[in-house]
Design goal:
The chain is an all-alpha fold. Helices cover 53% and strands 0% of the residues. The protein is built from 7 helices and no strands. Helix 1 runs parallel beside helix 3 and helix 5 crosses helix 6. The chain is globular, with a radius of gyration of 18 Å.
Length: 137
């Protein structure tokens, strides 16, 4: 893959976790058609610690998806669809029957300087993502 990566995903991937999940928005046609979107997918697979990425299948990814995608073929679209269909769950408002009222519990903890920096870095990345993908522009 290229040397330029999404630093938030790389940073988040270094955090030890038993389970990982990601909430993403719907890609716009402008983003979906760019090869940079493919890099985001491979970095998300890395963050999720998906078996495809764990086995370091970079050559296979380039051969079956990246190079063919750049050539304009539809084949990698179907390959990606197959790969991601096992990971993704899509919902719309119509899928939700009723959402229970939230319950809240507040716990105050003392964070070390390193923990505060880590938290603020992740929160800033999420804030930027929310602003960048805002429907209101």
């Amino acid at each position: 893959m290229g040397k330029k990566t999404n630093s938030t995903i790389v940073f988040g991937s270094r955090i030890t976790a038993q389970h990982r999940w990601v909430i993403t928005g719907t890609a716009t046609p402008q983003i979906a058609n760019k090869s940079g979107a493919l890099k985001n997918v491979i970095h998300l697979l890395s963050f999720l610690e998906h078996n495809f990425h764990r086995s370091r299948q970079d050559k296979l990814w380039n051969k079956l998806i990246s190079r063919v995608w750049s050539a304009g073929s539809m084949v990698p679209f179907y390959r990606l669809n197959n790969l991601l269909s096992h990971l993704m769950v899509g919902h719309t408002k119509d899928d939700l029957m009723e959402i229970a009222d939230p319950s809240f519990c507040t716990t105050c903890i003392q964070l070390s300087q390193t923990e505060r920096t880590t938290y603020n870095t992740l929160a800033s990345g999420m804030r930027v993502n929310l602003i960048a993908t805002s429907v209101d522009g």
